[in-house]
Amino acid sequence: MTHGRECLHCKQWVADGDPHDCWSTTEAALTRDLHDDLQDAYDRLRDAAVDLGEQRIYAAHHSIMFSRRACYAFVRPRHSWLDVCVFLGREVTGPLVRRATRVSRSRVAHLLRVTHRDEVEAPLTDWMREAYEFADASARRPPHARRGAKKR
């Protein structure tokens, strides 16, 4: 009888002694199976993010994160589209916006669906710039201002 465990994250059976790290992934692994239109859209989206300035771009589980001190956007590649989530300080609307959810006192997560590279232009690129700048501005505020501490 083989001893092991089921991974809580990916539900894969892992035999005792076998290495398993389902959280380790790469951008290439997440985008490898995208069809050409989606690959072009992702490449254009990534280039637009890189043009914004210094940041960290990395893969985490099923998403590709774009981060300054905190994540300002992420992309989750799907079979037929890219889920793009952008964190802004205000709520926006538009044909690409599927949903907007307040995730903190100051941030609103906007879930966008991108199916073609031509969609990676204004207003999406404007929202990415706004999110990039908002992430930097909110990181520079003193901790007591971020938590909404009461004045005495």
Kindly describe this structure.
By secondary structure, the protein is of the alpha+beta class. It has one domain: Yope Regulator, Chain: A, CATH 3.30.1460. 28% of the residues lie in helices and 28% in strands. It has four helices and eight strands, in the order ββααββββββαα. It has helices at 27-31, 36-50, 124-140, 143-147; strands at 4-6, 13-15, 56-60, 63-67, 71-77, 82-88, 97-102, 108-114. The strands form two sheets. A six-stranded antiparallel sheet has the order 3-4-5-6-8-7. A two-stranded antiparallel ribbon has the order 1-2. β4 (63-67) and β5 (71-77) form a beta hairpin. The model has no long low-confidence stretch (mean pLDDT 86).
Could you tell me the strand content as a percent range? 25-35%
Decide which structural class fits the backbone. alpha+beta
Q: Indicate the CATH architecture.
A: 2-Layer Sandwich
Helix content: 25-40%
CATH topological fold name: Yope Regulator, Chain: A
Instruction: Say what oligomer this is.
Output: single chain
The domain tally reads: 1
Q: What is the average per-residue confidence, as pLDDT, rounded to a whole number?
A: 86
Query: Distance between the terminal alpha carbons, to the nearest Å?
Result: 66 Å
Shape: globular
User: Poorly predicted ranges (pLDDT <50, ≥5 residues)?
Assistant: none
What is the C-alpha radius of gyration, as a whole number of Å?
A: 18 Å
Total beta strand runs = 8
Q: What is the ordering of alpha helices and beta strands?
A: EEHHEEEEEEHH
What's the CATH first level? Alpha Beta
